[in-house]
Amino acid sequence: MIALYTAGLGGTTSESDEISGVGITQVGQLAYVINEWHRVNMN
Fold first, then answer.
1. What pLDDT, on a 0 to 100 scale, did the predictor assign at position 10?
2. What top-level branch of life does the organism fall under (predicted)?
3. DSSP one-letter string for 1-43
4. 26 with 2: CB under 8 angstroms?
5. Which of 11, 25, 27, 42 has the fewest CB atoms within 10 Å of its CB?
């Protein structure tokens, strides 16, 4: 999932390290939101 997401932002090539870093941060936040959403809806 992370690889697909960062690839959508330009992959992990040397000229897009900054973009990939932002993408990884966003994936982490998205994963947290999804996890919380599932936790709430499973109860």
1. 53
2. Bacteria
3. -HHHHHHHTTTT-GGGHHHHHHHHHHHHHHHHHHHHHHHHHH-
4. no
5. 42
